[in-house]
Design a protein that fits this description.
Shape: flat
Helix content: 55-70%
Distance between the termini: 32 Å
Order of helices and strands: HHH
Largest sheet: none
Oligomer: single chain
Number of domains: 2
Number of helices: 3
């Protein structure tokens, strides 16, 4: 049984909003740079796109699923 968070969703959002926003911007800029350079056919980029989609799919256990995808070779 999962433990209830000590903080409310609003408190957690207050705590993490700016960091998450910054990291998402960094990820988007990285994809832009790579694609402008012409590496769009690289299988690693396709894998990163799949992993990025996991991060925002709204399904539970995103961190676990993301780590599992990263560990697949």
């Amino acid at each position: 049984m999962p433990l209830a968070p000590v903080k409310s969703p609003e408190q957690l959002l207050d705590l993490y909003y700016h960091d998450l926003r910054s990291h998402l911007l960094e990820v988007a800029a990285g994809f832009d740079r790579i694609e402008r350079a012409g590496a769009s056919a690289d299988p690693r980029l396709a894998r990163l796109r799949r992993i990025a989609a996991l991060a925002v799919d709204g399904q539970p256990e995103r961190a676990r699923r993301l780590l599992e995808e990263l560990s697949v070779r």
